[in-house]
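Please predict the structure of the following assembly.
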Amino acid sequence: MSSLRLGAKIAAAALLTTTLGAARAADMTFERALNADKEPQNWLLHHKNFQGHRYSQLKDINADTVKNLRLVQMMALGGLASGGRYENGNLEATPIVDDGMMYVPNGWGEVYALDLTSGRKVVTKWKMDPGIDRAWAGDVACCGVNNRGVALWKDKVISISLDGRMFAINRATGEVVWERKIAEPAVGETITAAPLILRDLAITGSAGGEFGIRGWIDATDLNTGKQVWRTYTIPGKGEPGNETWKDGKDRWQHGGASIWVTATYDAQADTFYQGIGNAGPDYDPEYRPGDNKWAASVLAMTPTDGKIKWGFQYTPNDPYDFDEISEHPIIDVNVGGATRKLVTHAARNGFYYSLDAVNGSFVGGRAYVDKLTWSKGLDPKTGKPLEYDPSLDVQPYVVNSHATRANPKGALKCPMTSGGKNWEPAAYNPELNTMYVPSAEGCNMLEGKQQADFVDQGGTAKPRDRFTGGSANYPTNEPIYGGLAALDPVTGETKAKIKLTYPNWSGVLATAGGLVFTGHMDGEITAYDAKTLKEMWSFNVGCGIMAPPITYAINGKQYLAVLSGPHWLRPKPEALKDQAACSMLNVFTL
Amino acid sequence: MGVAFVRGPLRAILTAGVFVSAFSGMAAAQTASSAEDARAIEFGKEIYKTKARCQFCHKWDGSGDQGYGGNALSLRVTQLTPDQVATTVKCGRPATEMPYHDKFAYTDKRCYGMTAADAGDSKPQIGNEFLQAREIDAVVAYLFARVVGKGPATYEDCLDFWGKDTQQCEPMKK
């Protein structure tokens, strides 16, 4: 072929690609986001819809056909470099899929735009590496090097990085249009949650509850890359809630209450519901007498100005590191003959809660874990732990279930520090009115150590130091395993529950095919019957899964995708002791 | 386990003080052995940093830490001998969060005369990766060359650990 003809061919091909590209990649609008469920072929939002259901209407993969699922596409996503305290990055992201293109970050925030349309080889359209100072960011990541996902806005991909930056990326080319430094690793702040995009605002927040931060939620104007508002999750002097820090030493300034999972959003009330992390220092509650609002809580907030409408605190004066950052699915259900909007939460503390979306009042809830010993139950009126005594500055809960200064070694208590349910998302099937809650099951104990004061409060604890007032310990012979529960979403009553070999760090996908999917730390990806939780299909990708499965369709064909890329904070089960790191995208179809 | 466990480069370091003066005529041999020592120290540092993830619990400078890896003691002020440190790394410390790194620990009585059954609930957790004797020697060599008894870590120590391509040491700059 002459070079001239080759040139012409290339030009023609380029033209074709551009036209196709333009036709395909419809801009992501707020309208589309509000109606995400009307595009079942796409996975447009982090939690599938704003309500946080992770439920797909696709049903070609169903109880009859699931046995024919097979692995058809794989792709290595990298991000395995070490940094700070960690020997590699891992994969926890929920990919976004729009019209056959997948947008997904690895643990170090390297964003990939992947063309999946061939149904076979994955074609990388572009990759954007944010160029993180890995030691600097990784040293103040509490629990691994991760990034839970990106979001779409107009013709941009919006991503975040562990070192606290946000990026607007040209969706067609991968070029960074602007970046904004939001969180400051110099004071222990990092970002790992996928941004929540509401109209032209990207909402995110700071992780760092083990490093003496004062948590916040922050909105960026995506048109300008500038801050619109920032709301601290711990109220400042004179603000309501600040009086719940009774120490008189301004402990609220380093009280934790971080953010690291994407909020849910109710369009009707124009309100988002953000889970808020543990109080700090984690295990020395005497350091911070009082209820410590809004640590271990949910906040209902207005997106335009970041105003707090209401809050509900799950574990006042949290002495356990019950970090309630995880999602709060919003459901419209019939309660006693009336349709009500509820905000729900499978909490790290082992209880499931449903709350009135309008005012945060407690509707129902109970334990969903096999063993819950730190409290005897929830007060049916208030939803507070039965032992909670508002007149006390430091809550004992069940005696000796946590460390105290007089008795620094707590007894065995359940659930263990990591939960219960941690960040790994639940799923809600509206047809069956069932909430699927993944869990870690088991117990551990806390060992207190009186926390040194912060340097800016006359002490020796420096920014970026672990600020935990002790430690979470794991006795070797204590069984640690996982669970998958199908719950009544109003009362939390367990309809079905199965034990899993390993604690679940993957999260759940529910589909109209009458199935629920989850991944496991030994690399299994499994489909269960939505009613009975009977296993219907399972495949091993050869490498641990701690990312949520998703489903989408390309040219009318339904696919299931999940990332594998494990990381054990500790303790690592004996059976997986030789498990290696990996970083893979795995795609299945019938 | 007796002193026999301390082999190779570590023994070289421990005995260097004596031997260097006694055999000062053997310049060539000495250079070779100090090069080997330097390699062991760097190798040990990498194990401390990444493979065994000691820093996750003890902090990069070995000053001890808290949170998600037990209340880990300071290795800068430890009173243990190199031999005892090696045993601690191999066998972990029963009833604490200090994990073991010898793959066969507690399968026989090599660790504190205890099998897993003897240790029961106090058996330590498994380390992030198992280490061979050569690797344990290197970690111990690193600790005694750079960490144990060295006082609070300095800016230079930080650069040595993290390198110069990161902001990590900025807060320590005087």
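Residues 3-24 of chain A form the longest helix (22 residues). The first strand of chain A starts at residue 55 and ends at 56.
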